[in-house]
Amino acid sequence: MSASAAVSSTCAAASSTTSRRSSSSPASRVQATPRRSLPSRLVASRTSPRSPVVPPVYATASAGGAGGTTAAAARKKLLIFDAEEYLAESLAKYMARLSGEAVAERGAFTVALSGGSLIKALRKLTESPYLEAVEWSKWHVFWVDERVVPKDHADSNYKLAMDGLLSKVPIPASQIYAINDTLSAEGAADEYETCLKQLVNDGVVAISEVTGFPKLDLMLLGMGPDGHVASLFPGHPIVNENLKWVSYIKDSPKPPPERITFTFPLVNSSAHIALVVTGAGKAGAVHKAFSDKQSSSDLLPVEMVSQQEGVLTWFTDKPAVSMLSSI
Ligand SMILES: O=C(O)[C@H](O)[C@@H](O)[C@H](O)[C@H](O)COP(=O)(O)O
């Protein structure tokens, strides 16, 4: 059995089996060097001697864009990096800062992962100084979207994250909320929502006073060339779901077809959202997302990412923004 399959925690089971699983998971077996509890401002200012953070070449709020309101635009930040290496370093620093702030404020850091290239971009978190400085024991990890496949399947976002990140940092296994891969897509989505409700009741997950939906500290999104985020695809009715926290699809245009996904009201209730978008294949969708000429009738899913509170930060590279004329 693979390392990722060995951790069989599901969202529903997590709260009742905390102590048993936390002592036996690959994640909890990681022997990090003794953690130095640094204030978040210090964590944020540290850089790795091997790969110094190189400032992004451009950073701004968009002139208009998704959501349309001036307030929403003012909370959008575009970071463009010369190399993926610098993006990864900056992303780790950003996450360490947010983690430090959330732990200081609420005693927990709630973060949702996507699949795809994002996980590779998180690799610096497994290295010094982040491995030692981040309070991993306070992390609660969710999936923005997940493919409905067994957890040890090559298509599983859980496996991807476990192999690339979660098996290398000491987050208690009971705080890693995988979907129940024995259920149908519908059943898994319902159970995941129930799990979130339980964690809201337990005070682990906050609730947005503005929207009434759960307010995770950080939502990490990738974007497809078609402008999809999570498993919210262009033209699919799921993008208009406004009641459920977690929903499902059985006809995803990106394989595999069956997935569960956070809905837009949940995504947009987050305290922070990071959109990690690299490569020339994404340039068209990035261009549309930053265009001033938007109409609500043809919004790409990425253009529907618009928080009620908090900041949306784009982590990009030059190829991804190559169609933005003002840069
Ligand atoms: O499970 C999934 O398919 C993802 O969550 C999906 O939303 C992904 O983030 C984008 O497709 C971007 O993927 P890339 O970064 O690999 O292009």
UniProtKB/TrEMBL annotation:
It catalyses: 6-phospho-D-glucono-1,5-lactone + H2O = 6-phospho-D-gluconate + H(+). It is an enzyme of class 3 (hydrolase). Residues 1-56 are annotated as: Disordered. Pathway: Carbohydrate degradation; pentose phosphate pathway; D-ribulose 5-phosphate from D-glucose 6-phosphate (oxidative stage): step 2/3. Residues 84-314 form the Glucosamine/galactosamine-6-phosphate isomerase domain. Residues 1-29, 43-56 have a biased composition (Low complexity). One of its GO terms (molecular function) is 6-phosphogluconolactonase activity. Its EC number is 3.1.1.31. Pfam families: Glucosamine_iso (PF01182). GO terms for biological process: carbohydrate metabolic process; pentose-phosphate shunt. CDD domains: 6PGL. Keywords: Hydrolase. One of its GO terms (cellular component) is cytoplasm. Hydrolysis of 6-phosphogluconolactone to 6-phosphogluconate. Belongs to the glucosamine/galactosamine-6-phosphate isomerase family. 6-phosphogluconolactonase subfamily. This is Probable 6-phosphogluconolactonase.
